Amino acid sequence: MKSNSEKKLTDTGSDERQVQQVLAKYVRAADNLDGEAMKELFTKDGKVEVFYVNSGIAERLFVLNGPDEIANAISNLMAPHPAGGWSHHTTNDHIIEVNGDVADIDAQFIRFDTLGAIRPQGGWPAGTVGLMGSVTATEAGYYRPTLKKEDGIWKLATHRIFHDLPFVMSGQ
Amino acid sequence: MKSNSEKKLTDTGSDERQVQQVLAKYVRAADNLDGEAMKELFTKDGKVEVFYVNSGIAERLFVLNGPDEIANAISNLMAPHPAGGWSHHTTNDHIIEVNGDVADIDAQFIRFDTLGAIRPQGGWPAGTVGLMGSVTATEAGYYRPTLKKEDGIWKLATHRIFHDLPFVMSGQ
Amino acid sequence: MKSNSEKKLTDTGSDERQVQQVLAKYVRAADNLDGEAMKELFTKDGKVEVFYVNSGIAERLFVLNGPDEIANAISNLMAPHPAGGWSHHTTNDHIIEVNGDVADIDAQFIRFDTLGAIRPQGGWPAGTVGLMGSVTATEAGYYRPTLKKEDGIWKLATHRIFHDLPFVMSGQ
Hints:
- The structure is a homotrimer.
- By secondary structure, chain A is of the alpha+beta class.
- Chain A has one domain (15-119, 129-163): Nuclear Transport Factor 2, Chain: A.
- In chain A, 20% of the residues lie in helices and 48% in strands.
- Chain A contains 3 helices and 9 strands, in the order ααββαβββββββ.
- In chain A, strands 1, 2, 3, 4, 6, 7 and 8 form a 7-stranded mixed beta sheet that branches.
- In chain A, strand 1 (42-54) and strand 2 (57-65) form a beta hairpin.
- The longest helix of chain A has 18 residues, at 15-32.
- The N and C termini of chain A lie far apart (40 Å).
- Chains in contact: A-B, A-C, B-C.
- Chain A binds chain B through residues 1-4, 7, 9-10, 12-14, 17, 21, 23-25, 27-28, 83-84, 86, 88, 90-92, 112, 114, 116-117, 119, 123-124, 126-133, 135-137, and chain B through 14-16, 53-58, 79, 92-98, 104, 106, 108, 110-111, 137-140, 142, 144, 162-172.
């Protein structure tokens, strides 16, 4: 079983809902570290632009060009989940504008990382009951993608990620 | 006044929105520990299946069969909120498929627990201002319910809860 | 560039979506501490009522009457974001009822505060990589606004904020 994503649901509802569901599938692919699923969500010339917003000034950190580069980044360049760990990229408060075959979303995002507690040798102490582990918010910002209809299906053309937190490449 | 739920809103909008609102009412009933409100959201033979997902493998923890068993679990088996405390089960990034009188949702969920600070004897220290207390994320996972239309109203037929965190029954 | 809000998107979609987008713009204005943007979201006689809910009893803390009072509170009475800091008021699980030119929303809200780490003099330690800083949930509760159509545009008529956490005015 593919972790946490065995069910495939098709798009129904208005253009606005379909567009929002592309973003919902984007965060599923990100949390599954599933480059192939991610690739399907982008247009043939789709790209991802990543920014850090510092006191209101957006500086561009890097760009991923084309579905293959995007898929590779998701499948191979992201840190794997630790044992018992998972992530949830969540989005909120979507502002969506659809104009024919082009759509823009402005959404907030919060990333949570979860880590299940490990059962101690000899078992849990007497009286232990309930869910064991931690849920920690680790990233936040805005997603501002532009989508286009390709062969009748809404896809991400340019996905823009605006991080609240500064991004450090090793040793800077 | 019933805590935090005095307003009753009816369903309007598309099937997709109505279906999503059933889930919105589900989390309200869960946070209110209101078994009677919860019962109304399920079909006559509705059930809840609870899973823990461990490194991608879903293991079923338990099942609640029928609205009465579900209502009892919510009203009587959940830990009550502590004094000054509340919970928020929140859902995000819904992927919804409607096929006639059957609908599937795939949603992320995050649970937050809030706890208001207690005013010290003699009052707050000089200079204290603002909201006092804590908001802590405590649970996360996916809700993947199937809904059915019963007498023209969307209801939960099988609600599936997939927890990220392991669940410990006492003494295991 | 106005921090994090350079894009202006218009309303499309159903009444329910338009109503929800007013709330999405409300949280953007709150996070931008932008009183002028906030003012545009309220009717001419719009107001904000702020409550604290204590063990299920809502006590009203204060009221802001009219768009000018609301704009002033947002622009001048809120604590500014610290250097490298930002906020995200997020909303979830909207229950929306539209009746002609009046609409009610019941939504959960969680506020997150983010704070970017400061680069140490001499740079980050060797091996440092990734997003540096913190994301902290700081407020939670319910938004229960009533909206009205004014000149064909949905606006907040009475916005009601129900806080989980007690609010302390200085020295109480």
